[in-house]
Amino acid sequence: MTARRARRWAGAGAVLSILAGLSAPVLGAEITLAQFRQRESRAEAAVLEEFERAHPGVRVRQREMPASTDVQHQQFVTWLVAGDPSVDVYLIDVIWIAEFAAAGWTLPLEGFLPPARRAEFFPSLLRAMTYRGRLYALPRFTENGLLYYRKDLVPRPPATWEELVRVAAQHRRPDMAGFVFQGLQYEGLVVNFLEHLWARGGGLFDAEGRPALAGREGVAALTFLVDLIHTYRISPPGVTTYMERESLQEFMEGRALFHRNWAYAWSQLQRQDSKVRGRVGVVSLPGTEGHPGAGALGGWNLAVSRFTRHPREAWQLVDFLTARGAQKRKALEEGRIPTLPALYEDPQVLASNPQFAMLRQGIAHTRPRPVSPFYPRISGILQGYLSRALARTMTPRDALEAAAAELARALPRP
Amino acid sequence: MSGPTGVRRRRRPGGGVAWVLLAPAVALVAGLLLLPLAEGLRLSLHRVWLQVPGETPFVGLQNYLALLAASRFWSALRVTFLFVVVSVGAELVLGLALALLLHRRFPGRGAARVAGLVPWALPTVVSALMWGWIFHDRYGIANRLLLDLGLLDAPLVWLGAPATALGAAIVADVWKATPYVALILLAGLQGIGEEVWEAARLDGATGLSLLARVILPLLRPALGVALLFRALDAFRVFDLIYVLTRGGPGGATETLALLTYQTLFQDLDFGRGSALSVLMFAVNFALSLVLLRLLFGRGEAGRVAR
Fold first, then answer.
1. A2, A164, A253, B84 - which has most CB atoms within 10 Å?
2. A337 and A401 in a common domain
3. Rounded Cα distance, A119 and A113, in Å
4. How many CB pairs below 8 A link A and B?
5. A20 in a domain, yes or no?
6. Which of A131, A240, A243, A401 to mutate to test the interface with B (most CBs of B within 10 A)?
7. Helices (H), strands (E): how many in chain A?
């Protein structure tokens, strides 16, 4: 009696387990992708549907985040500290990759990534996504700092910052600023400073990892930013309240000759409501005598949460969204800047984005901000002191020395 | 009906039942208030860097000492107090004026009372964006108005200069919170009985003497409530300043709440951030005790605090 019952249970169990095995691919997994709201939400929905068709049984849910980078960071940190498994894939800023990796919040990806796939990406991008020798994200869109100029007024773009100052001074007009950039106390100000620092051959840290920003190059770079406003007077005083949106607005209204912004600004400048449409040129950022310019690397990258219950499917989504097909679609429909060199030779992509031909060089010269788990901390300290110099409550040298001292205190010893 | 047992019961509420009835409230207070506070206190005594997981050594008071040694903390404390004192002071004066106005009978008073509340009803972020435009150096009406009136020779970059940024934020806060203060004071005014006004009138009190000798003393509880609410609220100001200036330029508008946010959610330094929160709590607690004592005298403050 009991033996028969046991057999019956065993049989039922076997049937159930077979059913479960069958049902796994049928019922499948639901993957949640947390990312900022995409510019063309229909194009994004189409890309995600395409993924679902290619991966039967896997469904993707988007969790749309607000545009503010800081708000995204705070929200992601809140979920990840709690080990929340309800988000599988995060679209993250390049400056958070090392931080999330060090905190143990994201999975290393090289085990998933076949060498042939790895070779498709710009190597410079993957280096910025590598922390302690392991790859923690794949780039979905890239961005880099560029110089926009009015090609109807300036026939030849300047190769050095000194030349830019000269040209802007020659074109001085009451209704037009010479050069607009991002001078508000926030991450963008740090980016602008770094680009000037690099253009002078300097860096934030020396080879031993000690803060080196208060050296000759750093003081020269920050002095130059201050002089743009107060000595050369080619940047308006209001630049200390600008983020990307505000400086772009000025340039788009025809109120500035030169403009530093990210690559995405190009497609905004071509919109119907742009007053400078068709009159804008874009080049890599200027250098100084003897040093080439370098734009900062920006962009958004896909990382897999360590708390995902479906690492394989999460990876499949990362793989699909960074592959050629999806990136091409985003480039065509949204003007997103691809992370695969091959797409810069695609005639269709180039036809709708002629600026990509120039961008490709820029991406090769782009420089990442320090790949450190403490980058937001570094930036927070810099923001306050750089802003003090721009507001002239501290001299550039004093501001940088104070920042260097504070960095040395706030970071673990190298 | 009320026999001796009833009396006794009322005098000594049965221990067991009372505790059972109190338990949900105690659990709620403990769970929502004391536990987070205790956890914050615990974190503040450790080094908790989220970038270095699994390594959270006990560091004693090190987080507090580092804060007290940092000029950034003192600057944020100074900015916060300046913001509280100036903006709440202005809100009380203007709120009182507005309340007195709205207390009078005039045609359309109901509509005026509702319209007056609009600034308070707007989400802070929305009004902050609006004030950002008002103070814009090129397009803002603040510059236009002052230039047209001849009060300025050249446009100011209100939000980009340390001397004016905090003032601009205070103006935006006063605009938003004055209706709230007015509402509380209006309720207080309406609580003053008709016979009091009449008696004051008969005794010949008018204008300022009426205000100083009759209205203000009777309005003291309402004023106290308004002051307390606004001071505690202004003390943790975050969204307004975050939208307007992000604490800039050069930290000139960085309040304690902004510094705490940066430390916790940008720096991911939960030890130091918790220490900041604990300090903010302590300062806020002391502030409310002082205010209560000033307003209601020793006995009342003790009662409320207890």
1. A164
2. no
3. 10
4. 105
5. no
6. A240
7. 17, 10
- Quote the mean pLDDT of chain A: 92
* pLDDT single digits (tens) A50-89: 999 999 999 999 999 998 898 999 999 999 999 999 999 9
Residue B296 · residue B224 · CB < 8 Å: yes
CATH number at residue A210: 3.40.190.10
Return the SS3 of A37.
coil
CB contacts of B138 in chain A (<8 Å) are 236, 238
Q: What is the predicted pLDDT for the residue at A24?
A: 46
Backbone angles phi, psi at A178, to 5 degrees: -75, -50
Among B160, B254, B261, the residue with its CB nearest the CB of A238 is B160
Which DSSP state fits A237? G
Name the B residues in 139-168 with CB < 8 Å from any A CB: 157, 159-162
Find tokens 């009406």 and name the residue.
B141
**Helical residues (DSSP H) of B135-161, grouped into ranges:** 141-148
Q: Judge: B51–A374 Cβ closer than 8 Å, yes or no.
A: yes
In this structure, the strands spanning A89-93 and A138-150 are unpaired
With contacts defined as CB-CB under 8 Å, which chain A residues touch B52? 102, 373, 412
With respect to residue A6, please indicate whether it lies within any of the assigned structural domains: no
> Which parts of chain B register pLDDT below 70?
1-14, 297-306
Q: Which of A73, A99, A185 sits opposite B248 (nearest CB)?
A: A185
Tell me what ipTM this predicted complex has. Answer: 0.86
Chain B environment of A391 (Cβ under 8 Å):
160-162, 248-250, 252
Which residue segments constitute the domains of chain B, with CATH numbers given? 55-305 (1.10.3720.10)
Q: What is the pTM of this model?
A: 0.89
Instruction: Tell me whether residues B265 and A387 touch, CB distance under 8 A.
Output: no
β-strand partners of A297: A144
Same domain, A250 and A188: yes
For residue A102, what are the domain limits? Answer: 30-142+297-365
Q: Where are the alpha helices (DSSP H) in chain B?
A: 4-11, 15-29, 35-44, 62-69, 71-103, 109-116, 118-121, 124-134, 141-148, 162-191, 194-202, 207-210, 216-235, 239-244, 256-261, 270-305
Residues A273 and A404 in one domain: yes
Tell me, yes or no, whether A303 and A335 share the same domain: yes
Nearest CB neighbour to A376, from listed B136, B254, B266: B266
Residues of A with CB under 8 A from a CB of B: 70, 73-74, 77, 81, 99, 102-104, 183-186, 236-241, 373-374, 376-377, 379-380, 383-385, 387-391, 393-394, 410, 412
**Three-class secondary structure of residue A179 per DSSP:** strand
**Do residues A135 and A52 both lie within one domain?**
yes
CA of residue A364 relative to chain centroid, distance = 15
Q: Which residues of B touch A387 (CB under 8 A)?
A: 248-251
- Name the token pair of B78: 């100074």
